[in-house]
TrEMBL record:
InterPro entries membership: DIOX_N, IPNS-like_FE2OG_OXY, IPNS-like_sf, Oxoglu/Fe-dep_dioxygenase_dom, Plant_2OG-oxidoreductases
Pfam family, one: 2OG-FeII_Oxy
Domain (Fe2OG dioxygenase) ranges: 210-311
Gene Ontology molecular function, alphabetical: dioxygenase activity; jasmonic acid hydrolase; L-ascorbic acid binding; metal ion binding
Family statement drawn from the similarity comment of this UniProt entry: Belongs to the iron/ascorbate-dependent oxidoreductase family.
One GO-annotated biological process of the protein: regulation of defense response to fungus
UniProt cross-references to SUPFAM superfamilies, sorted A to Z: Clavaminate synthase-like (SSF51197)
Name of the protein described by the UniProt record: Fe2OG dioxygenase domain-containing protein
Length: 367
């Protein structure tokens, strides 16, 4: 599918190396237009203590009917009104969460020549990277990353995963196993809340053996001018859902809420869950994917792990027939995830323009 994108259009600059060089001013390529820059507290018309919902996930499977219904109601409200929520008591070991985050911090602190052995290309994105879109001269974000495939098993190639630090491959495999399980449970809750069979969404994604799951580890270096740039530009996630393990010490994720950006304050040992465009399509926009971005910090770097839980790439995704009525016709045409993500991979992140333009496609505006 990505044969047209075999190489980056220009030399790739590692943002971590830029940050370590001691520059006082960031290169022009990273400076955002004034309207896209993170602003001071005046950017917030909502009180800053507002946070995305935090849900006790163990209650979803409780024998107590009242607890179960309340947890499902909270998830439904979060999916339809926020597009984001946090889950605690989710079943994934806290030690594993901490360990996998630390092992990736160790990886990004390795010498650049070691990391460079895993340098990626836009053909698959797998490996060590520093940009998303492939358009020459595109505005760049202040971050490096490592991207790898986890599911389906046929795409999993541990030789492309870091061999150093020594336990990295083992931890990634264990972490992937546990997070895929959590993803399956979340899909059941999403389906039930739509009035569908509990396996409906998972089946629409191809079933548990065929879901597409991949991991992007984000590294946001310290930045001398954090007010001029972003770690990740505004976008909605093109896939099904994202299970994010945030940095426990440094906030950075911001979620669009009406006309404001809300900075997410991670709850202890929580995952941050967000709805992607594919679930918005399947739910016929009952559930909403929501624009989000990442701000950077002049004092501290950040590491986060975004686990993408996606449909099998060649399946047609369209609004569920059960959710299409005379009053609410199908809002989106059928499209495979392969077709859909090609747009993002070409243009890079550009808000919610893609999912909103499906009925009448138009090019992504310059950011």
């Amino acid at each position: 599918m990505m044969n047209c994108l075999q190489s980056w259009p220009e030399p790739v600059v590692r943002v971590q190396s830029l940050a370590a060089s001691g520059i006082q001013a960031i290169p022009e390529r990273y400076v955002k237009p004034p309207s896209h820059r993170p602003l001071s507290n005046s950017d917030f018309s909502l009180p800053q203590e507002v946070n995305i919902p935090v849900i006790d996930f163990q209650n979803v499977f409780s024998n107590d009917h009242r607890l179960r219904e309340e947890a499902l109601r909270c998830i439904y409200g979060a999916c339809s009104e926020w597009g984001f929520f946090q889950v605690v008591n989710h079943g994934v070991s806290h030690e594993l969460m901490k360990g996998v985050r630390e092992i990736w911090r160790e990886f990004f602190n390795l010498p650049v020549e070691v990391k460079q052995e895993y340098a990626n290309s836009p053909a698959t994105y797998e490996g060590y990277g520093s940009r998303l879109g492939v358009e020459k001269g595109a505005s760049l974000d202040w971050s490096d990353y490592f991207f790898l495939h986890y599911m389906p098993v046929s795409l999993r190639n541990q030789n492309k995963w870091p061999a150093t630090p020594a336990s990295c491959r083992e931890l990634v495999a264990e972490y992937g196993r546990e997070v895929v399980k959590l993803g399956g449970k979340l899909m059941k809750a999403f389906s039930m809340n739509l009035g569908l069979e509990e396996d409906f969404l998972l089946d629409a994604f191809g079933g548990e053996e065929n879901v597409g799951a991949c991991l992007r580890v984000n590294y946001y270096p310290r930045c001398p001018q954090p007010d001029l740039t972003l770690g990740l530009s505004p976008h909605s996630d093109p896939g099904g859902m994202t299970i994010l393990l945030p940095d426990e010490n440094v906030a950075g994720l911001q979620v669009r809420r009406k006309d404001s950006w809300v900075t997410v304050k991670p709850a202890p040992n929580a995952f941050i869950i967000n709805i992607g465009d594919q679930i918005q399509v399947l739910s016929n926009a009952i559930y909403q994917s929501v624009e989000h971005r990442v701000i950077v910090n002049s004092d501290k770097d950040r590491v986060s792990l975004a686990f993408f839980y996606n449909p099998k790439s060649d399946l047609l995704i369209e609004p569920s027939k059960e959710l299409v009525t005379v009053d609410r016709p199908a809002l989106y045409p059928p499209m495979t995830f392969d077709e859909y993500r090609l747009y993002i991979r070409t243009k890079g992140p550009c808000g919610k323009k893609q999912v909103e333009s499906l009925k009448s496609p138009r090019p992504c505006d310059e950011r």
